[in-house]
Amino acid sequence: MNYKKLGKILGKVMILEGALMLAPLIVSLVYREGSKNALAFAIPIAILVMLGLVLQLPKPKREGLYQKEGFALVALVWLTMAVFGALPFVISGDIPNYIDALFEITSGFTTTGASIVTDVTALAHSTLFWRSFSHWIGGMGILVFVLIFIPESKDGSAMHLLRAESPGPQVGKIVSKMKVTTTILYLIYLGLTVLQVIFLMFDKPITGYENEKFFFSLLAAFGCAGTGGFSFLPGSMEMFSPYSQYVMATFLILYGCNFGLYYLLLIGKVKEIFRSEELRTYILVVVVAVALVFVSLVAKIEQFPQTYTTEEAFRHSFFQVASIITTAGFSTTDFNVWPVLAVGTLTILMFMGGMAGSTAGGIKTSRIIMASKGSYIKIRKLINPRYVPKA
Length: 391
Known about the structure:
18 helices, 64% helix, 2 domains
């Protein structure tokens, strides 16, 4: 095990996390939250930078990493990010119990969205920002970002790291160099986030939060980009206007797509995009799921006219399908009281997830396709042992 090289990369991750904490520190200063909230980020930043620089001192005998070291590094990185990422919550006093704070930030970085916070309105702006920002950081995987700053080796070390970090069944490069690949992926990720913020800014402010328009747009974009589920308002996304709900649902679907397809779009290979069987299946599943949920809600409208209008039924159907299939977990209404067909459809989508190479969770559409094809071939061979599947 190349411990010195692991420590060197881990040190870079610490310095990077310290740099990322500058964003909520700036938020704390902008909203004049006081020295306690500022120190809640300044202290961890100082600790992370110092430890990170110390870990840069030893010189490893071997620069490369084997696959086992790649898997070990991924585990160490996520643990380190969570251990230090929880400190601002504790120091600020917003989440005084360290174990609770550790749970909260781990949920953020892993884009799980489970929370121990019972009243989000009581949290400081900097804390809310750090919670939602953790979704954005963890969405693409922190090691994917770190690969941008690690010198590319000839022994495939970067690929070992990407393979250990990636949730998809297959990992590949969209261009010849891994560093360029990760840079492109993150630029696309950043571009989609900025684009969503711009679209959300066209909406009117939420009543009672007129001065928070840009701040809430940022938090919503962070949550959608990482397909996490941290809410920053009572009732999750219920207080947002229909326009913003449509925007968020649309971008959730986009974040659930393979980011490699966006690169093909950027270089003009549009036909290649629609040759993707996974994309066609993903879109078909979304359309069918929205239709099933919408029909079940319309049937309920006829029985209980006061529940939803037709537009509301479609909007909630679209939003919840987008939120659940990407495992974001946001909500615009209480879907627990929906008909069995609607709830059952959402439950299936939760397990399925988005496409491989996206920020969405779940089993992934590509694995569902492979499992379905494999099962079909097995059944055909049981019926006809001489059956030969088509290439």
